[in-house]
Amino acid sequence: MSVTTGHDRVPSTAPDPLPGPPSPHRAVAAATAGSGTGHDDAPGRPGAALVAALLGFTVITVDVSAVNLALPAIRDHLHAGMSGLQWVVDGYTLMFAALMLSAGALADRAGARRAYGWGVALFTLASLGCALAPGIGTLVAARILQGGAAAIVMPASLALIRQAYPDARHRARAIALWTVGGSVAMAAGPVLGGTLTQTAGWRSVFLLNLPVGAVILLLLTRVARSPRRPAPLDLPGQLTAVVALAGLALGVIEGGHEGWTSAVALSGFAAAAAGALAFPWVERRHRAPMVPPAMLRRREVSVSLAVGFAINAGFYGVVFLLGLYCQELRGMSAIATGLMFVPLSVLITSTNLVSPRLAERIGRRPVIVIGQVILAVAMFALLPLTADTPLWLVLLLLAPTGIGGALAVPALTALLMDSVPGDRAGTASGLLNALRQTGGALVVALFGSLLAASGDEAFSLPGMRTGLLAVGLLLCVTAAVARALLPRESGM
Length: 492
Hints:
Distance between the termini: 10 Å
Number of helices: 18
Radius of gyration: 21 Å
């Protein structure tokens, strides 16, 4: 399996892990396009570039899952309601999703090393802002900055690797190490977040990023300067995408708490509608649109986007629920809750490795469909959960969640990459990643609104079940659509 670009074929040596940041394909394509021949205007050390890239990918991966475990403590210390906790998660995810569409072009224009340095510095400063936040509003604002910085770090990190390793074989090994680091961070994030929250307080989850950021910036002084490429930026398209996503999240989050006909909810939905209508209009008129309208008319692309949205809605919804279910309903400690995620992470990593081989054997379409069906079964299997359900049974019922998405996403990404021209591989993958992150953000908005019982913001089992049922039905629909519309053995 490989990612085709306009210059060469960069092997996709490891599949896309869940949960965590978007897949490396977007950054691989951007790095390949923007790295020229690999010649630099200053000497550099490949090892320093690899370690810097690996640390950046690790820290943004840990941050996503670790913060979920800190939510109850944040609520207690900052006197936040459920809507505030939703924005702590979604402020990061929405900016990550929206800015991923053009972050690759920014890395090309500024040069990989410079863009990576900017992203890491901003992420580190935003982390300090999170740690020092006196209230929930300040924390959410800092989380939004973190998400924007993470979107810059993601493609620039692999662009650094592309620059440091011009030889395809050595580059493939470096990318493999980069991806393995993300998988390890994914598994360690919940445990680390729970341990830090319980022993040193929730602010330590963010303070941990400061020394890591300093080490990365120090390593960058040993990395060669990167060439620049005049990649066009689609600022009108980027702006309308942010307005549409943020407006929709605002409407769903505040609608569940203030009422669906409240002024703030209606304003959010109006902004979302305006942004959604303006986006295709500005894209058709821009000389270099970040999402070419013709690409969306391809069946493989549109179906892949819908499937990616649904898969992340299911997975991120369960991650959000599990942290609150264990701590709020069962009274478990943050450390014990973090340990609940370890078997899930092991299943994700191992299934990621199996998925490409299974796709070669039976085809990508069956793997994509089967993965969604398994994830839908996981949503339905969790419906009977109560506060007294044995923990061993909770872990058993969570197993399909780790298998379903991890089975489908590598095959889905590979199908999408082979369905678009080589010079559009980065755009297509960035769009898939943006839709996946959007699915995760919106399901957190929806689940948080359903979980909050009227008046007391308590964890609500009926609300949890309603959300799980809705996402399970969505996955059934997208599985049926994929089976009906994706061509057999597409891209094989």
